Structures are given as C-alpha cells and as structure tokens.
Amino acid sequence: MTASLSPSHRSREQSGADQRALNRTGLHPLPSLQPHQPLHLVAPEGQLQVHTAPYRGSFGTVLSQALRSAGLGSRVAVMQFLKGGVAQGPDAAITLCDRMVWMRPAVMGCLSDPASSTEPTTVDAVQAVWQICRRHLASGDLDQLVLDELGLAIALGYLNEAEVRDSLDARPGSMDVIITGPSIPESLMGLADQVTELRRGF
C-alpha cells in the first residue's frame, strides 16, 4: 500500500526550500484573497419596450411573449385599443392562463378612421380601455402591461398624447410595459428602454 502526503503534511524544510526557489527566480507568492462583501439583492426593474412597424398586425410575437409570462406566473394585461369585433370592453374582458387579462373596446369592428369622424360612443369605448390602463399604471398591480396600437390610437385622436406620456412616465419601476404598432410618437420613443423595429411583414 502506498500513501501520499497532502500539502498540509509537507515538512517545514520543504516549504522553506520552495520559498527560496521562488525568490531566486524572481517570483513571489500571490497575496491572500480578502473576503468579499456579501451580495445584496436589488429590486426588479421593469422596462418600457416599443415594438413598432410601418404596418398594422405586428402583434403576434408580443402576444406570445405575454402568454409565456402569464404561464410562468406573471400578472399580465393585454390592451388592444383599436381592435374590436368581439364587444369585450372593461366588463367583458377575457382571462387566459388564469393570469392574463385580454381586453378590447366594446365596438363591433376594427377602428381605422379618425376619432372626429366616428360616433362618440366609439371614442368612449376606447377611452374606457385606456382608463383601466391608467389605473394599472398608477397602482403597479401588474408585472407586464401590453398596449397594442397605442401610437395609432393617439394619431387618430382617440387618446391624448400628453396624458399617455405622463402616465407612462409615472409608472412603477417594477412594471414592464410593451407598446406595439405603427405611429409611435417621439415623446413615447424618448421614454423607451428598448425599441424593436419590424421592417417587413413577411
């Protein structure tokens, strides 16, 4: 049976010889490492993301991301301002994955005309969805809020740009907000942490 000595069993003479050999070659032992301060956890920080395109209908990737987040336990709301046809509205929102609320305005078709040329009830339906968004932005009760075609809703006159900007600027730091669609105003682009531009629809 053979046995080998670990470094802790080496003789003082051998250790001294090793030190003298290092000194002759000009090498010096490394200084001992000082213990580091323990890591401190920081609060999660949300982002404002913009997914824009020169065409409508760029929503699919963001919806997939929202569904995945909800499936993993995040509290998610998806708000579509100009997509109607299912007459949802605040009182008939749909819940998916038990964690994601999906809401459209209570109108019977998709909106593409300026607010000035539509019925007042249509404008009110879009505004009702926005008021729900404002409450979420103020309370911070969501992990992720998706605002589909928000810029186009502003451009068509359904929403007030300054009011939207102020609400987004005052949002809680832990909430992710994703804006999708064309015609994103520069004032909202200036708030974005990340901008993704889709240049082709195929």
Distance between the termini: 73 Å
Mean pLDDT: 84
The major sheet is characterized as: 7 strands, mixed
Unreliable stretches covering 5 or more consecutive residues: 1-6
- Strands ordered across the widest β-sheet: 3-4-2-5-6-1-7
- Portion in strands: 15-25%
Number of beta strands = 7
- Report the structural category: alpha/beta
* Bulk shape: elongated
**SSE run:** HEHEEEHEHHEHE
Radius of gyration: 29 Å
Helical proportion, percent range = 25-40%
Number of helices: 6
List keywords for this structure.
seven-stranded mixed beta sheet; alpha/beta; 202 residues
How would you characterize this protein structure?
With 202 residues, this protein is an alpha/beta fold. It contains six helices and seven strands; from the N terminus they run αβαβββαβααβαβ. Strands 3-4-2-5-6-1-7 form a seven-stranded mixed beta sheet, with helices on both faces. The longest helix has 20 residues, at 120-139.
